[in-house]
Amino acid sequence: MPRHDWPLPAVLAHRCGGTLAPENTLAGLDAALGNACGGVEFDVMLSGSGSPVLIHDETLERTTNGRGPVADTPDEILRALDAGAWFDRRFAGEPLPTLEAAAARCKALGLAVNLEIKPSEGAEEATAEVVVRRARELWAGASELLLSSFSERALEVAATLAPELRRGLLVSAIPKDWQMRCRRLGVVALHVAHKHLDATNVAAVRDAGLWVVAYTVNDPLRARTLFEWGVDCVITDRPDIVRSLRP
Ligand code: G3P
Ligand code: MG
């Protein structure tokens, strides 16, 4: 199958700004751009009010001063949370971003986006429905958006609701039936934990016409090797040191 050129930057900052700023925050987006990184990955989940917000964990404790499940917390409570102080006092008062706020900041900064649909358990369809509809509006006609998810159900919903939006399947190791799964889901990329990649399986995925995205690559020498094997994109916590190795 013919491969097209990878449409996003070859290095994406993980969870907005990697370890340069609190994860999944607007400050992280600023940090990515401030380190000459032209694109980011971030995680999107539904709040208790059904709104898409940027957060990785299903619960608030690790990355905010809130408590309890994100899926049980209404927007008015989320709006008052501090998502920056846990990381460093310099970031105190940093809000937990809505998808709308993140999209606006990415557009203002010119950042490309890999939006990971991150449903809380049991909310795969509902999360995909809301996130995909909103993403379609927010990035209307733009080519610098790639959806991804570990949830195949979420990717199915995305394919139905917005077939024009590119999608990638997230896996840890490459499953034996990856070709069948990717074909069924109509994804254009396979996102793989980098420790499970080697020259042979990268070539096989590329030969199938798919882009290869490696996460989370924080060692510049490892990034160089992955690019030499033909990996199209690395997602990194250290855009400040990995970005210089992009092809
Ligand atoms: O999309 C790559 C990576 O973000 C997937 O893992 O747990 O950091 O969201 P996680
Ligand atoms: Mg992620």
Automatic annotation (TrEMBL):
What InterPro entries does the record tag this protein with?
GP_PDE_dom, PLC-like_Pdiesterase_TIM-brl
Arranged from A to Z, the UniProt key words for this protein are: Hydrolase
Enzyme class label:
hydrolase
Protein EC = 3.1.4.46
Query: Has UniProt tagged this entry with the keyword Transmembrane helix?
Result: no
Q: Which CDD domains would you find in this protein's record? A: GDPD_EcUgpQ_like
Q: Boundaries of each GP-PDE domain copy? A: 9-246
Q: Which domain of life is it from?
A: Bacteria
Q: Which GO terms describe its molecular function?
A: glycerophosphodiester phosphodiesterase activity
Is Transcription included in the keywords of this UniProt record? no
Alphabetized NCBIfam families for the sequence:
PRK09454.1 (NF006989)
What name does the UniProt record give this protein? Glycerophosphodiester phosphodiesterase
Species in which this protein is naturally found: Aromatoleum diolicum
Q: Source organism lineage?
A: Bacteria, Pseudomonadati, Pseudomonadota, Betaproteobacteria, Rhodocyclales
